[in-house]
Amino acid sequence: MPRIPVLSFVTLSLVIMHSRGVVLGAQYGDWTDSDLQPTIQKLMKGYNRYLRPNFNGGPVEIGMSLDIASIDAISEINMDYTATIFLRQRWRDSRLVFVGNESVSVDGRLVSLLWIPDTFIPDSKRSFLHDVTVENRLIRIFSNGTVLYALRITATIACNMDLTKYPMDRQVCTLQLESWGYNLQDVVFYWTRGNDSVRGLDTLRLAQYSVESYYTTVTQAVYETGLYPKLVLHFALRRNVLFFILETYVPSTLLVVLSWVSFWISQSSVPARTCIGVTTVLTMTTLMMGARTSLPNANCFIKAIDVYLGICFTFIFGALLEYAIAHFCTMQHQTIGDLQRELQKDLEESSGNGAIPLVSSAHPRRPMELDPAQPEDVGQSAGGRGGAVLRVQGKGRGLGSVKEASRKATAAFSVQNPHNIDRHARTVFPLAFLMVNILYWLYYLFL
Questions:
Q1: 3-state secondary structure (DSSP) of residue 98
Q2: 50-61: per-residue pLDDT in tens?
């Protein structure tokens, strides 16, 4: 007989004998009779881990409890949180009943010999079972057949967040547990002690949040393949706003107050007031960009912090715009004043011959003289060219008419006292900012 077929036959025989527990006694997966305690040996005889308890009867009732060891990170960008939990599951398997009142704690690696629930976290993005120094599993079998199965898991779980009130927001996240393959006819989930089944949230300390409340619910997951058991832990997280007040709200408020300093600086100090205005605008822009770095960009949320920064930016830009308007009115007032003084001087010089200089609307700097003896049609032709002509019937009446027209033009196109703009701004800007702040905080804190 050739050598290769003989070796193949021997190898195949060893595999069959090993699978039937003939080699080195009975074999249970990676375990043999010599590796197991006598009690476990008796329990494993005839045990089929591929069939659930009460296979021909009612569903298996599986009790759940959680210990939240830590919530490591809460990300607004990815809208998820990372938590380390101790998951404990209890069920009764009549095939594991043994004589006595004691429980048997076995090695976690013996889980391969038992039937266990196929529990999973549906909203999990990433998860892993801790394995230092060994896989963090616990199996405890009680004399009445109750099995306690505990795991230590770290999972990154999705949490839909509403950031419209950020950073005064309140987020409600969930931790869901479902059965992957067994429907409600096979297994039933329940919390072992209701809300007390979850521990650790009361003493949890987070960087930006505090746990406000939590509660548990029992429901069912509806899929195309049927109805499946589902347990949900709801917990509410309240963000600590003090950090954002010190980091964003106080600096932006101080920038607004700094922009008001220009109202007390003389309007003739153009470099000083312009420097304050431009500097505060640029600093506010930088602060707005920094406040958005830790938040998702591609979303439709108009956040509370964006609203406040927008308000501050509007007031700062308004202070800069106020100086531009005040400076323009001052320059216009000076121009009209110079024109009036020049007109007054020309009237005084022409008082000897009765000729009165008139100001044309087309050329305000170039006076036009009109002689009292000049014909009337000259005046009409001058008016036709767009000039304003006054016929003088005496020196006193002509001077009064020119002064009255000059006062009307000044009142229509200029501010009587441009310095009043700064005086009014010193009151209007702080009061308006105070009222907007009251409305802002009332809305986002209490509504």
A1: coil
A2: 999 988 889 999
